[in-house]
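Section 3.1: Structural characterization of target chains.
Under the original work plan, the team committed to producing a structural model for every single-chain target entering the pipeline before any wet-lab resources were allocated. The record below documents one such target. The sequence was received from the expression subgroup and is listed exactly as submitted; it comprises 301 residues.
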Amino acid sequence: MEHSAPQFFKRGPTLHTRFVFFLLCSLILIIADARFHYLERMRMVVATALYPIQQVADMPGWAASRGLSFFVTQSQLRLENDFLRQQNLAQSGTLQTLGMLEAENRQLRGLLALKERLPRKTRPAQIERNYPNPFARRVAIDRGLQHGIRPGLAVVDGQGLIGQVTRVFHWQSEVTLITDKEQAIPIQVQRSALRGVLFGMGYDGALELRYMPVSADVQNGDVLTTSGIDGTYPAGLPVARVSHVERNAALSFARILCVPVAGVQGALQVMVVETEEKPPADPFLGDSKIQPAGRREGEAQ
């Protein structure tokens, strides 16, 4: 048998021939797809078949991107929360300041309205501090001898009477509030014109109308105003409102509790009401001096 010698190198079409062949195939496919859309369905089938492979191939990059964005978002949220917390604190301080200014404006408007009704001269003042004495109800105002303040003058806010000047210093004055247990104020029931004396009870928000007969025409809700018979407090200043009336036939006097109408504990802006230098003479005492209004009988001068 004869055998042909094996070929060491197999030679096919040349590179130039293959380039021309594939170029013609590409041009034919491009023209067929662009003009007649023959490959549209084939492209859809191939894309559908390759979609899962693309998703699997993109999964590492997607996971890395999501993890990075998670940490970046957490950091941004932390910074935003810190900024918003600081901004909230700043705005809270601003809101508190605005609230204080609004309350002060309301008090000033009340003082202006009350000043128009007062027939006497008034001096504006501001409460600076409370005295830390649990057995007395006193405050200090920023007006003293240099401003013409003297003991015995009435102190009011926009709602009514809050106290009386009891001690005067060079630049400050001490005001005893109407709730102090040493204060006694001549009053008149606005509804029935019944007169009496209102006493402080020594603790905040409590007054008592004492020595009123059981049959006295006093009811819950009655407004008590200054009677003006003491020569210190101008007549008609609101002082208190009756909150409780207790009548017991076995007792000679009714128990009448009241609450102040003025901001005894919350007032900041007040007015000191001027009075005459000399109170009217008491015909029963002759030339003797009259006790300052607001002091009980028997108290040392």
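Confidence is low (pLDDT under 50) at residues 287-293, 295-301.
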